[in-house]
């Protein structure tokens, strides 16, 4: 017999009754039923109930066993009584009578329990992550992650892609976030960078003639943490293709994404990839207040400025006299009660706004009436025009925000999400995908008037060099994101592969040719030797698993994540370097004032 096990803790069933078996695992829990000791023995694969009575030759040793001890047992498989069968687990028809036991590893008193679903502070969970990971939910999340990556790889290979690896120690990447710098021992005073993404290398592969590349790539960015973003590193499905248009990239990655979500989505609806809408960045901001809209929520915001211009509602009327301002409405079907409207007004105040105007429509017996302070101020004709534009009726409401769009769009988007959730309009049983396209390449700083890049500077401008001769703020790039349920899952672009267009694009943003060549010389030089048109994208592995696992925080699907302050509590990182290490690198740490 094997030194540790003849079967896993998920394999035994009625066909094994009468056999002598060997199992190894962790003591999930111990139950004492008056002289009968029952242990739920757990390994990575499942749970088997093992038991002993005073007739067992090792009963005294079994009495000493405690939760999370790692043990090996030998015993005889017995059928459970009909009334004691546990249909919830694969091994629920049998139990193992213990004849021998070996303690493989004792456990100290536990800082957190593995049995059950008790909540523990994040600090405790991350400090003792190896215990936290023993919990069933965490085991399931990590297996899901592994299976999903395996599925992605197969789907990419089936589409004719080859997997290649790119360097981890490299030069700074043009991704716009902070680099993690690595000092060079051989070149004192100089630094490598951990790659924010394989961006430059994958484009250089296209110049090298490799037609289709993909990689499950680690990426390193020194970023502020969020619930859906790691503050240090993450993994992405990175891909690039030559001789492709934007639509070619969509047609390649969309079936992969749809297939993965269908495979692991537990029966939730996934729209056919060819039906995913393509929404311009401008329309996404207008309709949803976000460039990663949650389309499970059917609410679309609309501009209603004309109904408030010159109206009796002085706040909006005066606002509209300023350049670049507008009023937007958030329809709220079935939200037509003063109680709900007051609740949303309180939400706006928590978001830092004075409030949020509203109108709701109610049945007065002799007809429909518009109610609320706004309705009284603008009068019945304007109110009725708003209702008809928004397609609302009795029992519905609308909320209003105004100003320069960039100052209130994000709040309006959050309000739209809250309204959809509270009114039960958001379809929870669905993954709703949408391509966001036509991103602006440039933006203007309103205080300084300086034009700079708003999005990826390496995207090919729509219209090429000709587009760069006019108003920079009108230039759109062949850049795109794929949004799903309110998260950005994919980001990509058709690349600017022509040096003359690239230099012009940077010149508009105030970057001279010398600076571009200094920062991105490897890529710019390569483009002078017959660069093919190429494009690609990257899909966030961690966010995909987070959505599929129904988790709200990305740390629930990462094996060993950092905390909110970018600290590894388990391994005590970051740590102070030894003096010898600093000396070898020619570095000195300057103490910071508290």
Q: Tell me the major beta sheet.
A: 8 strands, mixed
CATH 4th-level superfamily of the domain at 297-426? GAD-like domain
- The rough form would be described as globular
Q: Which structural class do the helices and strands define?
A: alpha+beta
Strand element count: 24
- Beta-strand percent range: 15-25%
Helix content: 25-40%
Structural features, described:
The strands form six sheets. An eight-stranded mixed β-sheet has the order 6-9-10-24-23-22-19-12, sandwiched between helices. A five-stranded mixed beta barrel has the order 1-2-3-5-4. Helices cover 29% and strands 24% of the residues. Among the domains are: 14-105, OB fold (Dihydrolipoamide Acetyltransferase, E2P); 297-426, GAD-like domain (Gyrase A, domain 2); 440-470 and 498-520, no CATH class. The chain has 594 residues and is an alpha+beta fold. α4 packs antiparallel against α6 and α4 packs across α15 (541-548). Homodimer.
């Amino acid at each position: 017999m094997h030194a540790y096990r003849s079967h896993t803790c998920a394999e035994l069933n009625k066909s094994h009754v009468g056999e002598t078996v060997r199992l190894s695992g962790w003591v999930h829990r111990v139950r004492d039923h008056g002289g009968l000791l029952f242990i739920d023995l757990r390994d990575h694969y499942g749970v088997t109930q093992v038991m002993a009575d005073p007739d067992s030759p090792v009963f005294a040793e079994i009495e000493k066993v405690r939760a999370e001890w790692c043990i090996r047992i030998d015993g005889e498989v017995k059928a459970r009584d009909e009334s004691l069968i546990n249909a919830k687990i694969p091994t629920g028809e049998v139990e193992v009578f213990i004849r021998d036991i070996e303690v493989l590893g004792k456990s100290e008193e536990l800082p957190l329990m593995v049995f059950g679903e008790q909540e523990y502070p994040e600090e405790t969970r991350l400090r003792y992550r190896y215990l936290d990971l023993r919990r069933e939910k965490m085991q399931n999340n990590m297996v899901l992650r592994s299976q999903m990556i395996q599925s992605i790889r197969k789907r990419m290979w089936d589409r004719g892609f080859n997997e290649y690896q790119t360097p981890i120690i490299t030069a700074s990447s043009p991704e716009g976030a902070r680099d993690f710098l690595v000092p060079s021992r051989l070149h004192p005073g100089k630094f490598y960078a951990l790659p924010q993404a394989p961006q430059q290398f994958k484009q250089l592969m296209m110049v090298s003639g490799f037609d289709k590349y993909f990689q499950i790539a680690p990426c390193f960015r020194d970023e502020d943490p969020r619930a859906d973003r790691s503050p240090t590193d993450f993994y992405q499905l990175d891909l690039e293709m030559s001789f492709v248009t934007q639509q070619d990239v969509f047609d390649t990655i969309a079936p992969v994404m749809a297939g993965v979500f269908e495979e692991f989505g537990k029966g939730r609806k996934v729209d056919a990839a060819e039906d995913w809408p393509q929404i311009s960045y401008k329309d996404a901001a207008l309709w949803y207040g976000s460039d990663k809209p949650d389309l499970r929520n059917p609410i679309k915001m609309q501009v209603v400025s004309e109904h408030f211009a010159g109206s009796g509602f002085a706040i909006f009327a005066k606002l509209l006299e300023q350049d670049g301002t507008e009023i937007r409405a958030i329809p709220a079907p079935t939200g037509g009660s003063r109680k709900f409207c007051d609740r949303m007004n309180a939400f706006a105040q928590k978001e830092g706004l004075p409030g949020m105007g509203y109108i709701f429509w109610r049945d007065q017996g002799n007809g429909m009436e518009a109610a609320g302070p706004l309705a009284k101020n603008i009068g019945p004709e304007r109110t009725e025009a708003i209702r008809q534009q928004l397609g609302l009726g009795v029992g519905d409401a609308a909320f209003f925000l105004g100003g320069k769009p960039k100052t209130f769009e994000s709040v309006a988007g959050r309000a739209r999400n809250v309204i959809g959730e509270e009114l039960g309009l958001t379809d929870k049983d669905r993954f709703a995908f949408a391509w966001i396209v036509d991103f602006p390449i440039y933006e203007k700083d309103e205080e300084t008037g300086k034009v700079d890049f708003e999005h990826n500077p390496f995207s090919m401008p729509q219209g090429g060099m000709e587009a760069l001769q006019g108003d920079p703020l009108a230039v759109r790039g062949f850049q795109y994101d794929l949004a799903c349920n309110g998260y950005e899952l994919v980001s990509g672009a058709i690349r600017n592969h022509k040096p003359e267009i690239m230099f012009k694009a940077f010149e508009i943003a105030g970057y001279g040719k010398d600076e571009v060549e200094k920062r991105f010389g490897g890529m710019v030089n390569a483009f002078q030797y017959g660069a093919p048109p190429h494009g690609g994208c990257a899909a966030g592995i961690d966010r995909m698993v987070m959505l599929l696992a129904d988790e709200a925080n990305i740390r629930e699907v990462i094996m060993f994540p950092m905390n909110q302050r970018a600290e590894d509590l388990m391994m005590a990182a970051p740590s102070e370097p030894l003096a010898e290490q600093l000396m070898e690198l020619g570095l000195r740490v300057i103490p910071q004032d508290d």
